[in-house]
Amino acid sequence: MWLNETSEDVSDPKQIDRSRARVVEISPRVLVNHKSWTQNSIQKLIDQGARVRISGWLTWDEEHPEQITNKIRGTLWEVHPIHKIEVLTGGKWVEL
Question: Which of 13, 21, 42, 70 is 20 to 30 A (C-alpha) from 49?
């Protein structure tokens, strides 16, 4: 997934500029411990333009330098695997 910081009111989250985005990846090995991390629940967050906080391992992905050149991502640093997804709800961070 591409995660991007924005303070804009974006009506279509898919239109956010990915050239500054960070890549965050859910690993199947971690996914078994997080039954609420479904495609539907993640898509709902995207559709809502929800503010999320991601925790996990910071890793360097040297396999995709063309994504920097083609402005598909902002850095080769990524969070992989994700260990926690939190959503800002009612002024509080709530674990997904």
Answer: 70
